[in-house]
Amino acid sequence: MIRAENIFKDFSGQVVLSDVSCSFEAGKANLIIGRSGAGKTVFLKILIGLLKPTSGKVWFGDTSLFDLDKQQLRELRMQIGMLFQGSALFDSMTVEDNIRFPLDMFSKMTRGEKNKRVDYCLERVNLAGNNKKYPSELSGGMQKRVGIARAIVLKPNYLFCDEPNSGLDPKTAILIDELIYSITRDDKIITIINTHDMNSVMEIGDHIFLLHEGQLAWTGSKGEVLTSTNETLESFIFASPFLQRLKRMYAKSVHTI
Amino acid sequence: MTKLLYHFGRYVLWLGQAFRKPERVGMYWKETLRQMNNIGIGSLIIIGVISIFIGAVTAVQFAYQMEGSIIPRYYVGYVVRDMTIIELAPTFSCMLLAGKVGSNLATELGGMRQKEHIDAMEIMGVNTAAYLVQPKLIAALVVVPMLVCIGAFISIIGGYTAVVPTGWFSHGEYIQGLRSFFEPYNVWMMFVKAFVFAFILTTVSCYQGYFVKGGSIELGDASTRAVVFSNILILLSDYIIAMIMTS
Question: Which ipTM value was assigned to this complex?
Answer without folding.
Answer: 0.81
